[in-house]
Design brief:
This protein is of the alpha/beta class. It folds into two domains: about 5-170, Thiolase/Chalcone synthase (Peroxisomal Thiolase, Chain A, domain 1, 3-Layer(aba) Sandwich), CATH 3.40.47.10; about 175-320, Thiolase/Chalcone synthase (Peroxisomal Thiolase, Chain A, domain 1, 3-Layer(aba) Sandwich). Helix content is about 35%, strand content about 25%. The protein contains eleven helices and 13 strands. The protein has helices spanning about 20-25, 30-40, 50-65, 90-100, 115-130, 150-155, 200-205, 215-235, 255-260, 275, 285-295, and strands spanning about 5-10, 15-20, 40-45, 75-80, 105-110, 135-140, 160-170, 175-180, 190, 210, 245-250, 305-310, 315-320. A hairpin with a 3-residue loop joins strand 12 and strand 13 (about 315-320). Bound molecules: acetyl coenzyme *A (ACO). It catalyses: malonyl-[ACP] + acetyl-CoA + H(+) = 3-oxobutanoyl-[ACP] + CO2 + CoA. Belongs to the thiolase-like superfamily. FabH family.
Length: about 325
């Protein structure tokens, strides 16, 4: 066994859809502004009673069905999320309990929008080291519960959802390489001031909201995403023309177009979900992957590059044969 390889994918989007027209009634904005600046047309919003782990369980079930594995096969659970149900126990254990899985390691990684890429990269190491034979890897988020719905500069961007994959050992090529990075000097450009130990949480309380300097985030995102995508190709001596699919983080259509241009890849070879999902943070890449797989565009053996960028800043890419 030389590789880890994705054996099945799944996704779950909450039932409720919030359109740009709905948002026009909530804040001073317009469908035209949101579409031209971000590409978002609608997003799914979790119900009051739904927790992030509930979304994860639905996506996990789909991925397990697609991979033809059951709960007894799962021997590792890693979840990328910034909006876990609780501070502890970690969301991996909550999913374990809801699925009826006992004993295997279960944990979460927190890397904002790059959460799934970090989780997948970690799981890849477990599988290739022979420490896991059937890993459940999830990216999930309910940002709607921490968004300030009166702040038009952020509330129009985000959506909720969960995407999951099953990762197994394989002799045939699967994940070829993963590339992770972070730079904490950018913390103030994008953060949420509520947590367990930061002094701000005592004053932020119910007024806590996502703080984002959108314009500056945009510039660093474009530069960094192009770089981390090229790094994956260069590290493996793979030409840009050999790539079959780009599955990017779905934050903003303009950021995606800029990365595609730098990679010299046609937008026809980019999986786009931002119009229907909004920015679902850690859920965006696995959900986009699942969309491409289930509608038959991404085929077995094809060369796929996934990439993401998020608060921290954190960034990462995964080059793989699907
Ligand atoms: N509706 C109407 N007008 C708005 C809205 C809105 N929803 N939001 C902001 N505006 C106004 C601003 O107040 C500003 O008005 P002014 O010129 O009178 O001051 C004007 O629109 C332009 O604002 P900018 O912030 O300069 O707009 P920009 O073109 O940068 O687009 C956006 C904003 C969409 C947030 C963009 O900067 C972006 O996508 N940045 C990336 C941020 C991101 O994706 N963050 C998510 C997490 S990180 C990641 O996933 C990459």
């Amino acid at each position: 066994m030389k590789y880890s390889r994705i054996a099945g994918t799944g996704r779950y989007l909450p039932e409720r859809v919030l359109t740009n027209a709905d948002l026009e009634k909530m804040v001073e904005t317009s469908d035209e502004w949101i579409r031209t600046r971000t590409g978002v047309e609608r997003r799914h919003i979790a119900a009051e009673e739904q927790s992030t782990s509930d979304l994860c369980v639905e996506a996990a079930q789909q991925a397990m069905d697609a991979a033809a594995v059951g709960i007894d096969d799962i021997d590792l659970i890693i979840v990328g999320t910034t909006t876990p149900d609780l501070i502890f126990p970690n969301i991996g254990t909550l999913i374990q309990q809801k699925l009826g899985i006992h004993g295997c390691p279960a944990f979460s990684v927190e890397a904002a929008c790059t959460g799934f890429i970090y989780a997948l990269s970690t799981a890849d190491k477990f599988v290739r080291a022979g420490e896991a034979k059937c890993a459940l890897v999830i990216g999930a988020e309910i940002l709607s519960k921490i968004v300030d719905w009166s702040d038009r500069t952020t509330c129009v961007l985000f959506g909720d959802g969960a995407g999951a994959v099953i990762l197994k050992p394989s002799d045939e090529a699967g994940i070829i390489s993963t590339h992770l990075g972070a730079d904490g000097q950018y913390k103030d450009l994008l953060y949420y001031p509520y947590g367990a130990s930061h002094q701000l949480h005592k004053t932020a309380g119910d007024d806590a909201k996502i703080i984002m300097k959108g314009n500056e985030v945009f510039k660093v995102a474009v530069k960094t995403l192009g770089g981390v995508a090229e790094e994956a190709l260069k590290a493996n001596n793979i030409g840009k023309d050999e790539l079959d699919w780009l599955v990017p983080h779905q934050a903003n259509l303009r950021i995606i177009q800029a990365t595609a241009k730098r990679l010299n890849i046609s937008m026809d070879n980019v999986i786009l979900t931002v119009q229907d999902h909004g920015n679902t943070s850690a859920a965006s890449v696995p959900m986009a992957l699942d969309v491409g797989v289930r509608d038959g565009r991404i085929k077995r053996g094809q060369l796929v590059l996934m990439e993401a960028f998020g608060g921290g800043f954190t960034w990462g890419s995964v080059l793989m044969r699907y």
